[in-house]
Amino acid sequence: MAVGVVGLALVAGACTSGGSNDTGRAASGGTPVEASVGSWKPWVLKAADQIKVPAPPKAGSDVAKAELAEVRELATKRTPQVEAEAHRWSDYPALEPWVKENMKLVSEQSKNPPLASRGYGLVSVAMADAVVSTYHWKDVYKREAPKGTDPVVPRAAAPSYPDEHAAIAGAASRVLAYLFPERPAAQYDAEAEAAAESRVAAGMNFRSDVDAGLALGRAVADEVIARAKADGSDHHFEGAIPTGTPASGPHRPPRPRTSASRSNHWRGPGRPG
Q1: Any idea what the Cα angle at residue 216 is, between residues 104 and 121, rounded to 5°?
Q2: Whose CA is closest to 216, among 144, 132, 121, 146?
Q3: Cβ–Cβ under 8 Å, residues 128 and 174
Q4: pTM of the prediction?
Q5: Cα 68 from chain centroid?
Q6: Residue 162's closest CA among 207, 199, 210?
Q7: Residue 120 and residue 102 in contact, taking contact as beta carbons nearer than 8 Å
Q8: Would you write out the chain's pLDDT as a tens digit for each of its 273 residues?
Q9: According to DSSP H, which parts of 142-248 are helical?
Q10: DSSP 48
Q11: 139 contacts: CB under 8 Å, gap ≥ 6
Q12: Cα radius of gyration (the chain)
């Protein structure tokens, strides 16, 4: 399970800004990303386009102009805290904040390795499917990122709508809320929204980019959670434990020999009898 989780994290990490695979998108400027992500087979979704994403505001429309004005205005009000938040949520690998939060939440619970491994797998699969679906819709709409905003973190060399970082945040936060219901779901939502907002404040995305990304990620999470609720992980063992025969008593594995006991029974060459 651990190997699978690490593999999923690498898959999604290679699809987000900061990746190092020069596979075809680099020619358009920005950080190179894997060109075929949108055509990859998802893990839980039936297809990358299963969850429909509406078209972004039309280029040149009043809505699009207002969005660009907002991002440019926010760029003039940027503070060190805004920059720190942008780096927190957008530095490579983009999955790291959510993986770390998952690990922290696991550490606060009573130890249950199988359940923890299941949780890591669910969060990783949700993020991976969110990225695959995001890049499918990026290739459909091909919306250019905002210009003249001096982005804090270099943008990926890919269309900006929907935003994959917001999708990752929406997917991970919702699955974590399912796995760890001790904390109010609104707190997980607030974290995801802060991650999405950091992209706009840092000049990397339009607001509709991150809104669409959040909605897509949360919809992907709902599919993963539905799958998780039917995986049988809450079933209890109802079989009979072998107890041996009345003569032999309950079965117990043999006690391991100590080094001393093994050496006392060894009569190899060179050892006195």
Answers
A1: 35
A2: 132
A3: no
A4: 0.79
A5: 29
A6: 210
A7: yes
A8: 443 444 454 444 445 444 333 333 333 334 556 668 887 999 999 999 999 999 999 999 999 999 999 999 999 999 999 999 999 999 988 899 999 999 999 999 999 999 999 999 999 999 999 999 999 999 999 999 999 999 999 887 789 999 999 999 999 999 999 999 999 999 999 999 999 999 999 999 999 999 999 999 999 999 999 999 999 888 777 777 766 555 556 556 666 665 554 444 444 444 444
A9: 164-179, 185-201, 207-229
A10: T
A11: 38, 159
A12: 25
Supply φ then ψ for residue 31, to 5 degrees. -80, 130
29 is written with which tokens? Answer: 């400027």
Structural domains of the chain in order of their starting residue, each with its CATH number: 2-17+28-229 (1.10.606.20)
Question: CB-hemisphere CA count at 13 Å for 71?
Answer: 26
Q: How would you class 42 by CB atoms within 10 Å of its CB: exposed for 0-12, middle for 13-18, buried for 19 or more? A: buried
Structure tokens at 103: 């690990």
Distance CA(31)–CA(126), nearest Å, equals 24
Q: Kindly report the CA angle at 33 between 40 and 140, in degrees rounded to 5?
A: 60
- The DSSP 8-state label assigned to residue 249 in this structure reads B
